[in-house]
Every structure is written in structure tokens, then in C-alpha cells.
Amino acid sequence: MSITKDQIIEAVASMSVMEVVELIEAMEEKFGVSAAAAVMAGPAAAEAVEEKTEFDVVLTAAGANKVAVIKAVRAATGLGLKEAKDLVEAAPANLKEAVSKDEAEALKKELEAAGASVEIK
């Protein structure tokens, strides 16, 4: 006599939490698998396929020409002189968050031309 999937589901539904945990442990031991690995692989695989569309531009160092970098930061962010200076001196610091790849690359090129070190994350 064969047990159907529905009968198995009903049997598991009627168990206590501790009984289900023991059942899972017994199945892991019997079949040499880990339920945690199977659960983690599902969503992680879907996320790996998804392409990143938003990037953060991080100023890692101001470089030798700090004045030019402050001007570039002001132009890019719209900050005042004092705020831009404080941001540049506080490096590493996020300049812009959740921007497109093209915008991030353009900002990086502009800041590096001014003498700054920049990362895109």
C-alpha cells in the first residue's frame, strides 16, 4: 500500500513543532542532505540572476588637489561650500546613492579627473 502526498501533508500538519523538527532531522540523516541548504539555495539563486541597477558612488580619498575635488563634489551634489568641504575631508564618504550605472560612471570620471579616488558599489 502506497501513501499519497496528501496523506503525508495531513500527517505533518497534525504533528507538534518538536515532532516536525525530529522528522526533519531524521530525513536529513536518512538521505544525507541538509534542509537548510535547500532552503537557502532557492532565493539566493534567484538573487544571483538579478542584475544590479542602482549603484552608490563613494569618495575614498580627496587626493592632492582637494580644492578641485570640492568643486566637483559641489557641482555633482548641489551642496554648499562648507558641506562639500566637510564631505571631502570625511572621506571615505557616500556622495550619491542609488544612481544609475551611467550616472555613477560619469561622476566617477569627473571626480577622478579632479584628483579624487572614487569607488562604485
TrEMBL record:
Residues 4-48 form the Large ribosomal subunit protein bL12 oligomerization domain. Residues 55-121 form the Large ribosomal subunit protein bL12 C-terminal domain. Transmembrane segments: none annotated. Keywords: Ribonucleoprotein, Ribosomal protein. GO terms for molecular function: mRNA binding; structural constituent of ribosome. The keyword Magnesium does not apply. GO terms for cellular component: cytosolic large ribosomal subunit. CDD domains: Ribosomal_L7_L12. Gene3D superfamilies: 3.30.1390.10, Single helix bin. Pfam families: Ribosomal_L12, Ribosomal_L12_N. One of its GO terms (biological process) is translation. InterPro entries: Ribosomal_bL12, Ribosomal_bL12_C, Ribosomal_bL12_C/ClpS-like, Ribosomal_bL12_oligo, Ribosomal_bL12_oligo_N_sf. Belongs to the bacterial ribosomal protein bL12 family. Forms part of the ribosomal stalk which helps the ribosome interact with GTP-bound translation factors. Is thus essential for accurate translation. HAMAP family: Ribosomal_bL12. Homodimer. Part of the ribosomal stalk of the 50S ribosomal subunit. Forms a multimeric L10(L12)X complex, where L10 forms an elongated spine to which 2 to 4 L12 dimers bind in a sequential fashion. Binds GTP-bound translation factors. This is Large ribosomal subunit protein bL12. It comes from Aeromonas cavernicola.
